């Protein structure tokens, strides 16, 4: 009877400790902040007075380049990112215990088997947009810039 209680205890402990819950997986998913083109990048690398070459070096080529009525150039960066992550975990535990003996001329055998399986997982899909508008003056220097960011 002690062996039976021991086997059941080990199986229970292994199945509850060995697997991650769906909430644990959700917390371990890849962060959407790990991107190359971010709002922080724009805020730290773009400043008034920078040349167009410096802006292009910091951010790359714009999606759209236009001129306003005064002839000043405007660059627009419009970035969209979709991130999908999936995390899963599965744990299986099995146990077997047996006993045997002789009672006179009769062979007595007994056994106990058990098993348990547990699986958990989580998925996340995030989409974010970042629009950056940079206006240059007549000397091709940054006159003003603005940005809008959304995440859904």
- What count of domains describes the coordinates? 1
**Mind describing the biggest β-sheet?**
4 strands, antiparallel
List low-pLDDT spans: none
> Would you tell me the structural class of the helices and strands?
alpha+beta
Q: Roughly how many Å is the radius of gyration? A: 32 Å
User: How do the helices and strands follow one another from N- to C-terminus?
Assistant: HHHHEEEE
The percentage of residues in β strands lies in: over 45%
Helix content: 10-25%
Q: How many H/I helical runs?
A: 4
Strands in their spatial order, largest beta sheet: 1-2-3-4
Describe the structure in your own words.
- The protein has 152 residues and is an alpha+beta fold.
- The protein has one domain (2-151).
- The protein is built from 4 helices and 4 strands.
- It has a 4-stranded antiparallel beta sheet.
Features:
152 residues; 4-stranded antiparallel sheet; rod-shaped
Write the layout of secondary structure elements.
Elements: H1 2-17, H2 22-27, H3 39-45, H4 52-59, E1 64-67, E2 73-103, E3 106-136, E4 142-151
Antiparallel strand pairs: 1-2, 2-3, 3-4
Brief rundown of the structure:
With 152 residues, the protein is an alpha+beta fold. 24% of the residues lie in helices and 50% in strands.
